[in-house]
Amino acid sequence: MGALTNNSRKLANFAGFYKGIQSAGAAITWRLDDLGVPYMNMFASNWGLLAGSLLVALPVILLKVEDTVSLEKDLQFTDETLEDVVPTAQLKGSVHLDENA
User: Most buried residue among 34, 48, 52, 94 by CB atoms closer than 10 A?
Assistant: First the structure.
């Protein structure tokens, strides 16, 4: 997940979504066990879901994961500004925000 963004707010949302799906899966497993579903069937369905999720994740991996992400692109679609996330000393020395440039 950390390769998708450097923005902590986005990562918190990604982690929350992941943990929500994980908890839903755990609840389903408890119910299947209560219904007496054979363990081999649950094991096979688990592997099927894994294979399906890898097919869904492949476009995300290929299209969204990058070696580097610019700060401007990382802040896109958020309510944060450069001043919120970059230390003040770094902003004063920045070429983009230098008042004398």
Answer: 94
Helix (H, G, I), strand (E, B) or coil at 21: helix
65: tokens are 């994961």
Counts of helices then strands in the chain (DSSP H, E): 5, 0
Model-wide pTM > 0.85: no
- Kindly state the average pLDDT of the residues 83-93: 68
Backbone angles phi, psi at 76, to 5 degrees: -60, 140
pLDDT at 9: 80
- Which are the contacts of 42, defined by CB distance < 8 A and separation ≥ 6? 29, 32, 33
Which amino acid makes up residue 99?
A: E
Q: Which residue has the tokens 């869904």?
A: 56
**What's the rounded Cα separation, in Å, for the pair 94 and 91?**
5
